[in-house]
Specification:
The chain has 268 residues and is α+β, with helices and mostly antiparallel strands. The chain folds into two domains: 2-139, no CATH class; 149-266, no CATH class. Helix content is 47%, strand content 11%. The chain contains eight helices and six strands; from the N terminus they run E-E-E-E-H-E-E-H-H-H-H-H-H-H. The chain has a four-stranded mixed sheet. A two-stranded antiparallel sheet has the order 3-5. The radius of gyration is 23 Å and the shape is elongated.
Length: 268
């Protein structure tokens, strides 16, 4: 990716993979270095090479790395990339690296690479766009591919396998047959995806201690009931007093999805 402002040109070259190594800052560590021991590291990384047509002092180069890192994280956030180590959204991978290439002989010297400077703006734009392009080229991972209920809530344990397991159990009790072929359209239904996005954000707000649990629980129950579309959808059985609140809320939404698939199909 390339961007220009007057006589300043910034080029970003990015290789991007997040399938096995995406992580959120502060996630549990994968390894600890001790006495130079070599340890196997999971595959998947985002490598960024920034080529800047100007002279950057060492301090500016360091700030350029920070700006590039923020841009990479923004790209991952916009795509809703999940950490493979926690319930959080990924901020990068555990093996990301950044290289800054500048020209000491250039006529222009740039001392600012933060967000308020033209250099910072160009770095942010090219890195963000290059990361997205790299992910699409490497893993066909883009906004369209992420438009999925289970993609949005998979990091909380709401998966196709768990939903279908409950679908089969409920249908068996009723003596009904439910076609699993309908799951794909269910998973990509705009109304369902929008509810999943809201549900995920509520769980994030609870994890970040930005909203109290009772508020999050109330709104999650509202979304779950809307998903199930049943006035008598039972809610009490999914909540009990212990510390596994995220798991409880995830299990509740799985049940709501399963009920929608079973009763929605058999009432249509």
């Amino acid at each position: 990716r390339e961007a220009q402002y007057e006589d300043l040109t910034v080029i970003a070259i990015v290789t991007a993979g997040v399938g096995g190594n995406a992580a959120r800052i502060g996630d549990p560590a994968f390894f600890h270095e001790k006495q130079g021991e070599v340890i196997e590291i999971p595959k998947g990384t985002i490598n960024t090479i920034l080529i800047i047509d100007g002279h950057l002092p060492e301090g500016t180069m360091a700030r350029a790395v920070v700006t590039a890192t923020e841009a990479k994280t923004a790209a991952l956030q916009e795509l809703g990339i999940a950490s493979v180590y926690s319930h959080g959204l990924a901020t990068g991978t555990g093996t990301d690296e950044t290289v800054i290439v500048s020209n000491p002989q250039a006529k222009n010297t740039y001392r600012f690479a933060g967000k308020h400077s033209s250099l910072g703006e160009l770095i942010g734009c090219v890195v963000r766009d290059a990361v997205k392009e790299g992910l699409k080229n490497h893993a066909n991972l883009d906004a369209r591919q992420q438009f999925s209920l289970t993609k949005r809530l998979g990091r909380f344990g709401v998966t196709k396998e768990k939903i279908l397991k409950r679908v089969n159990a409920i249908a068996k009790e009723k003596g009904w047959n439910v076609s699993e072929e309908k799951f794909e359209s269910f998973d990509h239904d705009p109304d369902h995806v929008s509810k999943a996005v809201l549900y995920a954000h509520l769980l994030d707000q609870y994890q970040w201690e930005a909203l109290p649990y009772e508020v999050v629980k109330k709104e999650c129950m509202r979304l779950g009931k809307q998903m199930a579309q049943q006035e008598d959808f039972e809610t009490k059985a999914f909540f009990w007093e212990d510390k596994k609140r995220i798991e409880q809320l995830s299990r509740f939404f799985i049940e709501a999805c399963a009920n929608k698939l079973v009763y929605g199909e058999n009432n249509s």
